[in-house]
Amino acid sequence: MTTIISRAPAGPQHSVSETRRERKVRVGGGTIACTTAGTGEPLLLIHGLGGSRRTWDRVLDGLAATHTVIAPDLPGHGESDAPAGDYSLGALAASLRDLLVVLGHSYATVVGHSLGGGVALQFAYQFPERIERLALISSGGLGPQLTPVLRAATLPGAQTVVAGLALVPRSVTLRTLNAVSSIAPALLARPDAGPVADSLRLLTHAGQRRTFIRTARTVINWRGQSVSATGHLEQLAGLPVLLVWGTDDKTIPPHHHRGVAGLLTDPRLLEIDGAGHYPQETAADRLLPALRQFLESTAPFRYTESRWRRQLTTRAGRP
Fold this sequence. Notes:
- By secondary structure, the protein is of the alpha/beta class.
- The protein is built from twelve helices and eleven strands.
- The chain is 38% helix and 19% strand.
- The strands form two sheets. Strands 1-11-10-7-6-4-5-3-2 form a nine-stranded mixed β-sheet, with helices on both faces. A two-stranded antiparallel sheet has the order 8-9.
- Helix 3 (115-126) links the parallel strand 6 (108-113) and strand 7.
- The longest helix is centred in the first third of the chain and has 15 residues, at 89-103.
- The chain starts with a strand and ends with a helix.
- Residues 42-283 form the AB hydrolase-1 domain.
- Residues 1-24 are annotated as: Disordered.
- Pfam families: Abhydrolase_1.
């Protein structure tokens, strides 16, 4: 297990890739909007609840220098069509598998942020033959604790409240969130005020608010996170995993990532000092070098049915 604590900026920002392309890809009965860039081994970036592929803008081009990067809007998010009715992690993972197939990729390294981390974990378990590495950033699905703000999204009337918040001008929302981070720092990290304000602006459309609430309710209840991947982590033996968190994350407790490291065969851990829940946006200059080093220094995972069977039967035989 390797733990790195990142405290200082590490290198210049990368210029915009000349290969960056915005596209809508027909997958099944709908379309998935995505940004693609670069050439090389495929790298799939999965955003969080209520977000969009734009959360990766600060790291996408740096990653595209060595990889084919695919950053989609999850179904019902951003510019992607809403799903037919299944908002579960399994359905989201399947839609991303289908996207890779349509784009001509048999496998990919998968990077997930927040809810996207839960989707990435589900993808690894559902489609182990299609994953090479796994990077989890401020990931959901690793423990029950969760900010009260997101737990409230599962309560009756939440969609009306979210609609009201989404219509508030961004400047007003940002001032309010900065005040909250000062008065009640346990609720919101100061670096996260901007990303949260941007996420709320994405929810001005009724369809996206509906997706936000329905997706939230598949993984969250009023007590916290209701879906956990920890029971399946041992099944991913041999898969290179990078765990990343900000020390000031108020949305998902940092101890979730430290706690699950012992369930993995060879985890890499990156703790970003002072970062909140969105290090890909607020600490990109420290996240990007770690992602690139992880990609360069690890061998891709290759699924074999005999190993998968051995893992399943070993687990089944435990008391």
